[in-house]
Structures are given as structure tokens and as C-alpha cells.
Amino acid sequence: MDQWPLGVFASIDAGLGVRLEVAHDLGVPTIQLHAPHQHTRTKPQAERFLEQLEKLGIRISVVFGGFEGESYADIPTVVETVGLVPPATRAARLKEMQEISDFARLLGVSAVGLHIGFVPHDHADPLHAAVVRVARQLCDHCKSNGQNLHLETGQESADTLLDFLHEVGRDNLFVNFDPANMILYGSGEPIEALRKVGRYVRSVHCKDAKWAARPGKEWGREVPLGEGDVGMEDFLRTLKEIGYTGPLTIEREIPQEPERQKEEIGRGLRLLNDLKAKIG
Ligand code: MG
Questions:
Q1: pLDDT tens digits for 165-183?
Q2: Which residues crowd ion ligand 1, with CB under 5 Å?
Q3: Hey, is 277 helix, strand or coil?
Q4: What is the domain-level CATH number for residue 247?
Q5: Within a domain: 105
Q6: How remote is the CA of residue 168 from the centroid of ligand 1, in Å?
């Protein structure tokens, strides 16, 4: 496969990605897929879906899980609601992620991703140990399906993430690096973070953002690719430096404005193509 095939984040019936037809119109060979709703995660649906993808000439690189009840309204709400961290929903969400891993297997996909949530930094916090445990359980389930698990970056610094990966200690646990999230959450300079976690990076989101006035206290602002503070040329040069050759998957989270989403992703793809020609 070519180095750095282009991709977009796509959705069937759940999540913030573009529809498959849009991915096809954009001419990308790969997608990351947001897992569809539970009633759609069946064998017949998987087969129908694979047929459709085959016709469109698209392959799935990662299936991403997300959950009912998650809210990204502001940073404290993310802490309360996102991923496998909130205790009240943890068992049900673990089960759902295991089902998503099983569905990804039906699709022949060997990587599953998620936002695990805000892992408490303090090892003495019982919540910390509980999240390490659930991450191991999910890794082991993915392993039984021949899959890797990719944790989306952003809600923690690179050092905290490395510490967590080491503590979980599973050889199928990797990173989906999203440079814009580092800026949106105020969790560190993205290029430096990418160098630190580089050896674990198995997928990426190409997304851009502007720093908040008070990083970590309030959201930064997601902007079209190339218009933010990530520095896409530096990002690609650093991906090359760490030896990453996988898909460059554009994520642009404005599903409420589908025309604008498609147009901006189109421009993003042209930018990535230009940078690939220059750097690749
Ligand atoms: Mg992302």
C-alpha cells in the first residue's frame, strides 16, 4: 500500500463523520468508521456494508466506538460523561465496546478505537486502577478478535498517556493521534507530544484547532485543516520522522453543516496531497 493513503472519518447512522457517499465523492481510498447503532451491528448488515464498500473502492482502517450519553459540551462535562471512566456506565460501555470489536471483526477490520475518557493522573485514586483494569479487559477482548485497540489522544498529556499505556501493559494497545485535540483540550504542544508517543501511533486524525485563551479551562476552537495552530507541514514531517506510513484520516466535526463539511474536507485533502508530494 502507498504511504499515507488519504481518508475521512465516516458514519453510517451514528457519530459525527461524513456519509459513505460523501467519502466516495471525495475520492478517498480509506475511512475510519464510527460504529453504527447496536441494531445495525449484525452479520447481514456487515455483509451488505462490505459489498457497498467494495463497489466504492473504500477500505476501513479503524472502527471507532462512541456511547449514548457522552457530551463534549465543555471540558468538565467530558470528564463526567466520556469513555470508560464514568463508573455508573463503565460495565455497560465495556460490553458495548466488546460488541463493537466483534462487529469490526465481521467487517475484517483489525483495529478498534475510542476516547477512553479522562484517566485520573493520581495512581492512588481508585478510579485510576479501575480504568487500567477495564482497559486490560477491552484489550484482551480485542486480542481474541485479532485486533489492536487505539486510544484517541487529547484528554491527557503525552507523558500521562505513556504512563497509562505502560501500566495497562498490553501489546495490542496503541494510539490514534489527534493533534487538534491536544490544542482543544490544552493538553500540550501536539508536535512534541507526537514525538513522545510516536512508537505507539498506529492511526491519526488530521484535524486542526486554535488554542483557547485559557487552555485546559475552556475549549480551543476546531478550524478547517491548515488554518489552525497544529502546522500541517510539521505534523506530516514528524509523522515521517517517527516512521508512520498509515492512513491520513481527516476528521471535521461539523455534521450539522454537511455541505460545508464536505467542501472543507475537500480542501483539506488537497492540502494533504500537496504536502505528500512535497514531503512524502
Ligand atoms: Mg479525533
A1: 999 999 999 999 999 999 9
A2: 178, 205, 251
A3: helix
A4: 3.20.20.150
A5: yes
A6: 22
